[in-house]
Every structure is written in structure tokens, then in C-alpha cells.
Design goal:
With 496 residues, this protein is mainly α. Helices cover 42% and strands 6% of the residues. Strands 1-4-8-5 form a four-stranded antiparallel sheet. Strand 6 and strand 7 form a beta hairpin. Helix 2 packs antiparallel against helix 4.
């Protein structure tokens, strides 16, 4: 991880000399509340393990949550797709099932984070720290990470078992699945508790990348937006905006460039570090095709990669600066210059430590940007009371202005419904390939219409696939269900 506080690196190197991952911690099955976690240093190491667990979910395409949501949505097709069940086990074709390894990895990875947070939260109040502020921050981080994990599990899989403390395997198997609303409510409770503990600052220097109150507020607001609870989302978004600590980058490219990481646009991002230190990511490499030859990266991409869908490529208005920053065409691969297809280059701006090998990208990957905070606020304003001349349209036009586009007028968005459609259109291109399109489609209630229109296109696998209403949720992984066979407190989502 990129300097998520240097003390973590020093401590991990000291304790785990010789380990390949500098944030290596005890295996989850080996955590012992009695044996360890007795000092401040133990908890610094423990929270480092939480950050590391999240980082591991983004390092490659095979385990990247961004990649999963991007492929599920209408942003991409797959080039050189494999035979059924398809690339990513059919996630992009809506033929995935409970045996899909991506869903299993995703599900278990969030519970790994939850388990590591529970280890901290169960005992931290009873430990004497040399610095009370450090104790407060670590507890706040653990609460926020646990809340984030339940939010992510909840919108993807529906209600899940709420593991609120360290439990034995047998005890865990008796905890019944909660509803989606109960899962969200518990996440909201944890997020809210974290606000009083996390710092109301924007971390800099060696602390860059650590969570703050504002990062937690932003994700809770995102959860409320998902639930159409605008009244609870707006105060959280307003608090972030009024803090004065964040702003929109003047240049859209710098929302993703390595040189502007942890800057004014970034509230929460996954930290990576280039320079062949073993802390880079390979996700970016997998966005260009195999046998690629050109200046974007000094090595080839993957044989199966996401090709930007024709509809996504045409969603950009003429003159939109974001298109050439996010997308590229006319690249040479397999010995031919491809003048037809577009590929993703949004995360290729490694302008500090350009990678020399495929897994050495130092480019951070976004969880929450300030522009998202602003656009959620504009959307909430519109949903609670349309105004042709209020802050909502000013925010939308500021986003468009950065993209080189003309402002929208009251004549173009004369009512709430037209403004809502403008937000839907703008979010698609502003946050393209960042993993937000799929949950956005779900919360707007348009996922089935949008995806079936895309899947009906002969370009997308011959128009032979369809999305069902039950596929708003992913399946509960079979290996998880199998663990609960004797207690039957976990069951499959309808339609799988």
C-alpha cells in the first residue's frame, strides 16, 4: 500500500521480514484475542491488515470489484470472449450462477475485512494506548470499514448474516441471514459511530490514504441515495462540501493521474505504489488487449479485455474532453491498427513511477471522488424539490464545464424528470469505468431496461442473452451456502 502511514510499513517489515506482502498479518483463522493485540503497535498492525484486505480486492482484473461491476453494466463488451459460460464466468452475459468464483471471492473478501475489524473492535476499548488519539482513529477506521463491507455486501447480495463480533465457526453458522434493510441499517449504525472517532481533516504526507470522517460520510450518503433516502443523504453531503477541504480538479485527467493522488478530488481511494516494490496493481494492464504495441504501457495487455461498448462510446457529447481521457482507439494490437473499437485508458496515467512490468502500476483506484459528492448532492436537491436556477443545475454545469461542454439551461431541463435524466446521462460519462454505473442503474430502477436493450444488440454475443428481474442481486455463492447446510440459516436469492 502506498504509505498508508509509514509506521505500518516499518512495523510490518520489522515483524514479518521476508514476507512478500509488506502488510502480511496473521491468517484470519489464527487471530487470537488472548494471544495478541495487547499494545498500540499490535492495533496499528491490525488496522494495516484491514487496509491490505481491501487493497487485495482491486489489484488485478481477476479479483477487482471495479472490473466486476463494469462488466455487469452497459459500459463494455468483451473482446475475444471465451465460450459459454463466458468471460468472468458469465457475469457480463447474465448467465452467472452460485458457482461463480468471482462472486465467491468478492463475498468472502468482504467478510475477511469484517472479521479483521471485529478482532479490533472486540478488544480495543480495553487496551491502554500510548496515544489516545491513535486509539480513537483506529477504532473509527475499523467501524467505517465494517460498515463499508456490509453496505457492499447488501447492495450486491441482499441481506447477509451480520457478524458483529469475533465468533467461532460453529457460532457463525447459527447467525441467520438478515434482510437487505437490516444489513443497511447496521452499516448506517457503524458509519454514524465512526464519525465521532475519525478525523475531520484531509490527511497528507505519511498518513495519506487513511480514512476520514468525510470519506465515511460520503459512502453512507451513497447508501442513502441507493435507498432513495435523500433527506438523510443531503446533510452528509453538505457537511463534506462545507468542510472546504475538497474540490474538483481543474483537469479531469488529474482525477486519475498518479501525480495528483490523495489530492483535492480524492476522498477514498485504494492505495498502490509503483517502483517495483511489490505494492503495485495489475488492474490497469488488463484494460488493453494482448499483443498491444504502443506508448500507453511497455508490455502487452490481456487476451480477453473489456472493449468499450458502442453505446458507451457514443454517450459522450461532441467535444467532451472526458472521452479522450477515458477511452482510446486507433491502437495497434495483433499487428493491426484498430480504428473501430475503443479501450479504457482512464487509469493509465502513471506519471510518477511509470510501470516497467505488468503488476507495477502505482495509480490509485477510486472509491469516492469529490465530484461524486457534488453530483449526489445535486441529484438529491432535484429529488426533494426541482429548481430551474438552484444549486443543482450549477453543480451539473460545473461538471460539464470541466469537460468542455456548454451549460444546460432551464429550457433544456425544465422540470424534475428532465433534470433527473440529465443527471443519469452525466453520471454515465463522468464516472465511466469506475464501478458506479451498475449500482446506479439498480438504484434508478432502470437496470433491466438498459441491460436488455444492450444484450439485444447483435454486437453483444449475438443478441442471445437476457437479464431477469432477479438478477438485480448476485447469487449467494454455493460454497457459502454449503457451510450452512446443517443450520439452514443462509438461503439462495430467488432465480438462482
Amino acid at each position: 500500500m502506498k504509505l498508508i502511514y509509514k509506521a505500518f510499513l516499518l512495523l510490518a517489515v520489522t515483524i514479518f521480514t521476508g514476507c512478500s506482502d509488506f502488510l502480511t498479518v496473521l491468517p484470519d483463522s489464527s487471530y487470537s484475542l488472548a494471544g495478541g493485540y495487547k499494545s498500540q503497535a499490535d492495533f496499528v498492525q491490525a488496522i494495516a491488515g484491514v487496509y491490505a484486505a481491501q487493497q487485495s480486492m482491486y489489484q488485478t482484473n481477476a479479483n477487482s470489484t471495479i472490473y466486476t461491476y463494469m462488466m455487469r453494466a452497459d459500459e463494455t463488451n468483451v473482446i475475444t470472449p471465451q465460450s459459454p459460460p463466458g468471460y468472468l464466468g458469465g457475469i457480463e452475459r447474465f448467465i452467472d450462477d452460485a458457482n461463480n468464483s468471482i462472486h465467491s471471492s468478492n463475498y468472502s473478501s468482504y467478510y475477511k475485512i469484517i472479521n479483521r475489524c471485529n478482532v479490533i473492535l472486540d478488544v480495543i476499548d480495553g487496551i491502554k494506548f500510548t496515544d489516545a488519539t491513535t486509539q480513537k482513529y483506529i477504532k473509527g477506521e475499523a467501524l467505517a470499514f465494517r460498515a463499508y463491507s456490509y453496505w457492499m455486501l447488501g447492495w450486491q447480495f441482499g441481506g447477509v448474516p451480520l457478524i458483529k463480533k469475533v465468533t467461532s465457526v460453529e457460532e457463525t453458522k447459527t447467525i441467520a441471514r438478515s434482510t437487505q434493510q437490516e444489513t443497511f441499517a447496521f452499516a448506517a449504525q457503524d458509519f454514524t459511530a465512526s464519525f465521532a472517532l475519525l478525523p475531520s481533516v484531509k490527511w497528507t504526507g505519511s498518513n495519506s490514504g487513511r480514512l476520514t470522517k468525510y470519506a465515511a460520510e460520503g459512502i453512507l450518503a451513497r447508501m442513502y441515495m441507493f435507498q432513495k433516502d435523500y433527506a438523510h443523504a443531503m446533510p452528509l453531503l453538505s457537511d463534506i462540501i462545507s468542510s472546504g477541504l475538497y474540490g474538483m480538479e481543474a483537469d479531469y485527467k488529474n482525477c486519475f493521474s498518479e501525480s495528483h493522488e490523495n489530492g483535492i478530488e480524492r476522498l477514498w481511494e485504494i492505495q498502490f505504489m509503483g517502483g517495483q516494490l511489490g505494492e503495485g496493481q495489475q488492474f490497469t494492464t488488463g484494460l488493453l488487449p494482448g499483443d498491444y504495441s504502443g506508448p500507453l504501457q511497455p508490455f502487452t495487455g490481456y487476451s480477453s479485455v473489456p472493449m468499450i461498448s458502442a453505446d458507451m462510446a457514443s454517450a459522450y457529447e461532441t467535444g467532451d474532453l472526458r472521452k479522450n481521457i477515458s477511452c482510446v482507439t486507433n491502437i495497434k494490437w495483433n499487428g493491426v491498427v484498430d480504428t473501430k473499437n475503443y479501450f479504457i485508458v482512464k487509469f493509465h496515467y502513471g506519471d510518477v513511477t511509470p510501470p516497467k512490468v505488468a503488476n507495477d502500476w502505482g495509480v490509485n483506484l477510486p472509491i469516492l471522488r469529490y465530484t461524486d459528492v457534488k453530483m449526489m448532492y445535486a441529484e438529491a436537491l432535484n429529488e426533494t424539490g426541482y429548481s430551474a436556477s438552484g444549486d443543482a443545475i450549477s453543480i451539473l454545469n460545473a461538471v460539464r464545464s470541466r469537460a468542455g461542454l456548454a451549460p444546460l439551461t432551464a429550457l433544456q431541463v425544465p422540470d424534475q424528470a428532465s433534470f433527473r435524466n440529465a443527471i443519469i446521462k452525466e453520471r454515465r460519462v463522468e464516472f465511466a469505468f469506475e464501478g458506479l454505473r451498475w449500482p446506479d442503474l439498480i438504484r434508478w430502477g432502470i437496470a433491466m431496461d438498459v441491460m436488455n436493450a444492450k444484450l439485444a444488440n447483435p454486437v453483444q454475443d449475438g443478441g442471445t442473452f437476457k437479464m431477469k428481474a432477479t438478477q438485480i442481486l448476485f447469487p449467494i455463492p454455493f460454497d457459502e451456502l454449503n457451510r450452512y447446510l446443517d443450520t439452514k440459516v443462509l438461503w439462495q436469492n430467488p432465480g438462482y
